[in-house]
Write a structure and sequence with these properties.
The chain is an alpha/beta fold. The protein has four domains: 5-204, Rossmann fold, CATH 3.40.50.300; 211-326, HprK N-terminal domain-like (Udp-n-acetylmuramoylalanyl-d-glutamate--2,6- Diaminopimelate Ligase, Chain: A, domain 1), CATH 3.40.1390.20; 366-512 and 668-696, Rossmann fold, CATH 3.40.50.10950; 516-665, Rossmann fold (3-Layer(aba) Sandwich).
């Protein structure tokens, strides 16, 4: 029987079960179209459950909140005290079975042991899992435990699960030091278990609060700094009351500084440090005492534009404030991008997803949601870990995307720019680029080599050596393109700042087109609710010839296949079949015939109207014998005007997610961004570029 649910829980406190639930949910979303998250018991109903909302929002689960839980703790207490335990389990079972009818899979997370009252048996999670016939995933806390203690905990947990009569699916030992992880791996290396056993490292960042959490917990006033910088993670809290010349040496990266509101000298010093490249950057400042600060200091602070140093104020005294901040328990939410990237990267690195998939008895399904498509892209990109260069490191969106893909263990990143300047700016923005390779074209030893090579490639066009060197030193896109050409990196993503021409021109001059491609073209992955389609060309070729259209169709079909989409090509026109005539229709007919001659194995139809290509009912009327009509997955537009307007109209009217433009036809992967792109667009394009580079 195919597994329809998994139950994640633990008999221990502070185990990090949410971390495991997030990792498992990521895996499930790549395999199932409709996944539900369910908690049999939540703490209270007065406010929405934190764990439910984190997973529901981050994974865009289409499930009403009322369906995500069965009982509150107080309701469970009442039923147990009235000897209605059987009724309790029965109601949970009914609710889960109803979810199974509507969803392909259900991930269930139990209640934490630390929340259980004396009247509730601590094995209640096992009892619920048994009554649901849900395989059990246990999560153990390995923090500050030696090997003997960890081994004993694993054995006790396994025995408890077996005794209760549950199917033991897997055990995760979380929060391990690097030494403990190595010891555990060695100890269990030759041990045959009837369940999967995984070890996850301690990540202190996951337990660190953000400035925003401090603000909310203390009900502070947000005095200065842009809202987005409240998401900065705090490493430690420090009370500063000493003289400026004495406290500077005590400041460390990501400190939260607590100081009285009237210490203008400290505020001024911290602002000076903020603009210095020689000292660490603090996460934020909390001013205590609650009274108004000096008007001149306030005026000075207001003069800063885009101040990346959040400043809070509270009426509490310094000592009370410090105690309250220390007591804050950090939370992971759907907006905790850095923490979520760490979790997903950690899960991918230390967990064998293929073994879990094998146990779940994979379900074949041709329906693909945007989230499934995105997660599959990330999964494939992680398999080869390509090196992608981002020349536009001056853009905050690019830096944030670089952090996310590195934290998520998706790709390796090279940034172009001054290392000290980049690291200082990233630190001010609360962005971690410590794992990136940073190259400065102005000082790099590669610049001379690149200039010489560029001169050799372009001297027949009148290029001079000095001109080549100038371009390599001062045009990051050319430098980055040369890195791709000579194999220093696997691909490039640009265009957040520069135009498409500035991205494509160096590629045409240096990378050049494939032998099989006469043109460089682009496509968009159009992600609808239940399918992903390919639209081409919507960004590059203004009025392609029949020969160019044929090349675009073939390249688009190959790209679609590389990304798991079965290519069924629709050569779009204002007429279908033989219903129309004219120069524009003839061009489509010729292009379609050229594709059939060059690649007879490809399924293609043209000329065909969009409605006949997408709608099965219309297809039956217009082209009843066609194998493509009504089922097309690759749409080739006759010109740029039609393609660009259509993709935007469909995107904006249907709510589809458009990923692209993705360039094709080049010898090596170079991809362009829209200047209006958001961080998620850049992340997706980086992952796609990695897949293009590896060809996996």
């Amino acid at each position: 029987m195919q597994i329809k649910s998994l139950y994640v829980s633990s008999l221990e406190r502070c185990n990090g079960s949410l971390v495991v639930a997030i990792g498992i949910m990521q895996l499930l979303k790549t395999k199932y179209r409709k996944v539900a998250f369910f908690r049999p018991i939540i703490e209270e109903s007065a406010k929405k459950d934190h764990k439910i909302m984190t997973i529901k929002n981050y994974f865009s689960l289409n499930i009403p909140y009322a369906d995500t839980y069965a009982f509150t703790l107080s309701e469970v207490d009442n039923r147990i005290s009235m000897n209605k335990t059987h009724e309790l389990y029965e109601q949970i079972l009914i609710q889960v079975r109803q979810l199974e009818e509507e969803y392909d899979f259900i991930l269930i997370e139990g209640i934490g042991k630390n929340l259980l009252s004396s009247s509730i048996d601590f094995d209640i999670n096992l009892a619920i899992a048994k009554n649901l016939s849900a395989p059990f995933i246990s999560v153990l806390n390995g923090n500050e435990k030696n090997l003997k203690q960890i081994v004993e905990s694993i054995a006790i947990e396994s025995k408890s699960i077996q005794t209760e009569g549950c199917f033991h699916f897997a055990t995760f030992v979380n929060r391990l030091s690097s030494k403990s992880m190595e010891a555990c791996k060695n100890y269990f290396s030759d041990t045959q278990l009837h369940y999967e056993l995984y070890f996850l490292p301690e990540k202190k960042e996951l337990g660190a609060p953000t400035v925003k959490e401090v603000k909310n917990a203390l009900n502070c006033k947000h005095v200065f700094g842009d809202q987005k910088y409240l998401e900065k993670t705090i490493k430690r809290n420090k009370i500063i009351a000493m003289r400026v010349e004495h406290f500077i040496d005590f400041i460390e990266e990501k400190d939260l500084i607590i100081t009285p509101y009237d210490r203008s000298d400290i505020i001024m010093a911290l602002l000076t440090l903020y603009h210095s490249k020689l000292y660490p950057n603090v996460a934020g400042i909390v001013l205590t005492g609650g009274s108004k600060m000096d008007k001149n200091i306030e005026k000075l602070l207001n003069s800063f534009e885009n101040l990346a140093l959040p400043i809070l104020s509270t009426k509490e005294d310094t000592y009370t404030t410090s105690i309250k901040i220390e007591a804050i328990k950090a939370k992971i939410t759907a907006k905790s991008q850095n923490k979520l990237a760490i979790i997903l990267g950690m899960f991918t690195t230390y967990v064998d997803s293929k073994k879990i998939e094998a146990k779940l008895l994979e379900k074949n399904d041709d329906i693909v949601t945007p989230l499934m498509f995105e997660f599959n892209i990330f999964k494939r990109a992680r398999e080869d870990k390509s090196m992608i260069v981002l020349p536009e490191s001056s853009d905050e969106r690019v830096l944030k995307a670089a952090e996310i893909v590195m934290q998520g263990n998706i790709v390796n990143i090279t940034l172009l720019g001054d290392e000290l300047e980049l690291k200082n700016r990233s630190s001010l923005l609360g962005i971690d680029i410590s794992n990136a390779t940073i190259i400065n074209p102005l000082t790099s030893e590669l610049t001379e080599t690149f200039a010489t090579k560029f001169y050799e490639l372009r001297k027949h066009k009148g290029m001079q050596m000095e001109e080549a060197k100038e371009m390599m030193m001062h045009n990051e896109t050319y430098f980055a393109t040369m890195m791709v050409y000579l194999g220093y990196v696997d691909g490039m993503v640009s265009g957040a700042v520069h135009t498409t021409a500035n991205t494509v021109r160096p590629a045409l001059q240096i990378i050049k087109t494939k032998a099989s491609s006469s043109v460089v073209s682009s496509l968009f992955f159009m992600c609808f609710d239940t399918k992903v389609l390919v639209y081409a060309d919507c960004a590059i070729n203004q009025d392609p010839s029949a020969e160019a259209l044929a090349t675009i169709a073939i390249d688009s079909a190959d790209t679609a296949k590389n990304f798991g989409i079965e290519p069924k090509i629709a050569m779009l026109s204002y007429s279908t079949g033989t219903s129309g005539s004219g120069e524009d229709v003839e061009k489509i007919k010729i292009a379609t015939q050229l594709v059939r001659e060059k690649r007879p194995e490809l399924q293609i139809e043209g000329p065909i109207q969009y409605d006949a290509a997408i709608d099965k009912n219309i297809a039956k009327q217009k082209l009843p014998d066609s194998k493509v009509a009504g089922e097309a997955t690759v749409f080739i537009f006759p010109d740029l005007n039609t393609g660009n307007n259509t993709y935007k109209a469909v995107r904006d009217s249907s709510g589809a997610i458009a990923i692209g433009p993705i360039l094709q036809g080049l010898n090596k992967p170079i991809n362009d961004l829209s200047r209006g792109c958001i961080v998620e667009d850049i992340v997706n394009t980086i992952a796609i570029t990695s897949i293009q580079a590896s060809g996996n």
